[in-house]
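Notes to self after the Tuesday call (sharing in case useful).
The group wants a holo model before anyone commits to mutagenesis around the pocket. I volunteered. Ligand is manganese (II) ion. Logging inputs and output together so the record is complete.
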Amino acid sequence: TTLHQIAVIPGDGIGREVIEPAMEVLEQAARQWDFTLAWTTYPWSCAYYTEHGHMMPGDGLDRLAESDAIFLGAVGDPSVADDVSLWGLLIPIRRAFDQYVNLRPLRLLRGIDSPLESLGGAVDLLVVRENSEGEYSEAGGRLFAGTSMETAIQESVFTRRGIERIMRYAFDRAEERTGRLVSATKSNGIIHTMPLWDQICGEIGSERPRITVDSYHIDALAAYFVQRPETLDVVVASNLFGDILSDLGAAIVGGIGLAPSANVNPDRTYPSMFEPVHGSAPDIANLGVANPIGQIWTGALMLEHLGHPEAGAAVVAALEDVLADSDIRTQDLGGSASTAEFTRAVLDALRSKRPAFVNHAD
Ligand code: NAD
Ligand code: IPM
Ligand code: MN
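Result:
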């Protein structure tokens, strides 16, 4: 059977609580669909930093490079400054492995009530977030610390190469879906970088006449996410705009505990990294109540990426079965189930989804 090497980084807070449940679900999918996941777990986290003085060892990236995919929970703890934990682990992985696409599908699952009541299950959109440059640049820093002139500067860096590749990727996804693409912009003369973004979007659009492109200012688009999300399909956005839209989008489909995400290296030169949209949620850590849906769904994206789309779809269908056919849900969704109880229900639902070609004796 096919063997996939998976590097696992549970991280901090609820990252450590949702990763094992998700691994259990993926393990079961692997058994049912007849492939093997070989996990190697790395303890790199804020706790690791406190002990060793760095978030990962010097050869950390080399070790991860050996894997077929990276499965990450979340990183961040109040005892360590976020810029230390993020620039020490998460961002170097995204950058070193040229994971320039951050895919964030948003779909209202059966059984989930959107806070936007009128939607009736219609939200199904894909945020394609630029993941390598833009507002998340390394250019800048803090000046005059401790004086009345204290200043912080960060230059946005948008390159033609960076914009072209994310646009092409987004146009391709739009072509496979409904042929509609929305570009998030802010080009009304205020933000210098966005006219270049729009120009390149237009250039690629003229090569792709089958795709309908609308450009919306990010502020107006945020309102459309709430007012008429059912009219949106693929949304391409810069690093920061995409970050904000993905939490907003998650909120309209049930909450950020549900939203999956994939940091993809489309050329497959390097491993891609799969981590949910949410963070380490220090406010609910160690209580065993975190919603594992985001992590499990993220795992389904990983299975798809590894060449097992049917297994991935079955995992998402199992999540939907639990939500639609029972009232088992975690606190964030108004229920009282623990992370473990919800996961058990998902495992039961998945068990009934046998691939047609396998003859199971039991
Ligand atoms: P967060 O996503 O951790 O939490 C925001 C809110 O959503 C909290 O109230 C939290 O309880 C809730 N929430 C999040 N996930 C949930 C889940 N699965 N089930 C139930 N409730 C859930 O965002 P934050 O508070 O802005 O950040 C906390 C820490 O996480 C920071 O250190 C931040 O840097 C880090 N962070 C890491 C990642 C990552 O590693 N990929 C992503 C985002 C934030
Ligand atoms: C996310 C997170 C990260 C981001 C942070 C933790 C750097 O919010 O994955 O959405 O902004 O990319
Ligand atoms: Mn985010």
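Two things stood out.
The radius of gyration is 21 Å.
The pocket of nicotinamide-adenine-dinucleotide (ligand 1) is lined by residues 14, 74-76, 82, 86, 90, 256-257, 275, 278-284, 290-291, 294, 332 (CB under 6 Å).
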